[in-house]
Design a protein that fits this description.
Blueprint (H helix, E strand, L loop, with lengths): L5 E7 L3 H12 L6 E8 L5 H11 L3 E6 L4 H11 L4 E4 L5 E2 L3 H11 L3 E11 L17 H10 L10 E3 H6 L11 H9 L4 E13 L5 H4 L1 H19 L18 H5 L4 H13 L3 H5 L2 H10 L7 H10 L3 H13 L1
Parallel strand pairs: 1-2, 1-4, 2-3, 6-8
Antiparallel strand pairs: 4-7, 5-8, 6-7
């Protein structure tokens, strides 16, 4: 078989709800020279049947139906299996615009110093209605990308990313230690070897809905992102990255030992705490204890009394009382 120009990489886990429009948006691309790798990561719903059905209809689809191994393993598996020099990420709950692949591969062809290109997104809800998201757009140049890293602004939308396969393989692919923020960690590691940016066009319809990964694992995701940023700073300073060979991140209190100096754990708590203030799941899981520890270490009280009220609305009166007591003592 001739080598395709693009390998599309989609991992699916119990994605039947939105899988059909996601697959069809890929098959409807104006740029048609691609193979479509779909890994079903041990789904227990109708996802495998949907994938088989589309694979019978379109020979560009290369399905892999197997037991659950997690997203990071699935992504690295597809990178290794890809026959094309360019890999386009896609999630099982989003929708590509028909011109997406053509615009992105054209950008990479015209900018050989860029290893990764994303795009702006159109944010939608579970019913494909507009979903309002405040904040900055994804950076349009590598210089803006580096500025976004330092300011904690959005970097790249993972399912909108297209990248050169060899560049990603050169940094070891996705790291399992950064589960639920594996893309953020990858972008930071790639920033040291290539250029990254996004096309200022809304080439992907990005879906927001209850129970998606970013909602269910908010605390773990934010802790991982904070540690990844500190590892990035180590690399920028010419020091060894202490997370490079980890399969799993240690508890936050063990980070001082991992990095070899005091204050790392406190810095992680300071970076994570503000992001938990509006997170229902974060305030209900280990994020709550992290927030209280942050306050005891002298963290800002701005907005914290409103969090007490929010916890009451979330049906967490005991935690509301604990936070109020922590604020009073601090």
């Amino acid at each position: 078989m001739p080598t395709p120009a693009i390998s599309v990489a989609m991992s699916v886990y119990n994605g039947e709800r939105f899988l059909v429009p996601a697959i069809e948006s890929v098959l409807a691309q104006d740029f048609r020279d691609f193979e479509f790798l779909i890994v079903d990561d041990g789904s227990t719903d109708a996802s495998p049947a949907i994938i088989r059905c589309y694979a019978h209809r379109d020979s560009r689809i290369r399905p892999c139906l197997r037991e659950n191994r997690g997203l990071v393993a699935s992504l690295n598996e597809m990178i290794e299996a890809a026959r094309a020099p360019i890999v386009a990420r896609m999630d099982a709950d989003d929708i590509c615009r028909p011109e997406r692949f053509g615009r992105q591969i054209g950008f990479l062809a015209g900018n050989p110093d860029y290893g990764v290109v994303g795009s702006w997104t159109e944010d939608i809800d579970s019913n494909e209605r507009p979903y309002h998201v405040a904040g900055k757009e994804h950076p349009e140049t590598h210089e803006a990308f580096l500025t976004a890293i330092e300011n904690g602004w959005p970097l790249l939308c993972h399912p909108a990313a297209m990248f050169r396969r060899d560049v990603v393989r050169s940094v070891g692919g996705y790291h399992g230690a950064f589960r639920h923020c594996e893309d953020y960690d990858l972008w930071l590691r790639l920033a040291g070897v290539t250029r990254l940016a996004s096309i200022p066009e809304r080439l992907l319809r990005y879906r927001h809905y209850e129970n998606q990964v970013s909602s269910r694992h908010a605390t773990e995701q934010q802790i991982g992102a904070a540690v990844s940023y500190l590892a990035y700073r180590e690399r920028c300073a010419g020091r060894e990255d202490p997370t490079a060979t980890l399969e799993r991140l240690p508890p936050v209190d063990a980070l001082d030992a991992l990095f070899g100096r005091d204050g790392i754990a406190a810095e992680v708590r300071a970076r994570v705490a503000p992001g938990l203030l509006y997170s229902r799941s974060g305030l209900r899981d280990e994020g709550f204890d992290l927030l209280c520890r942050y306050l005891r270490e002298g963290g800002s009280h701005d907005g914290m009394w409103r969090v007490v009220a929010r916890l009451v609305r979330f049906g967490e009166p005991t935690r509301a009382l604990r936070l109020a007591a922590t604020l009073a003592r601090a």
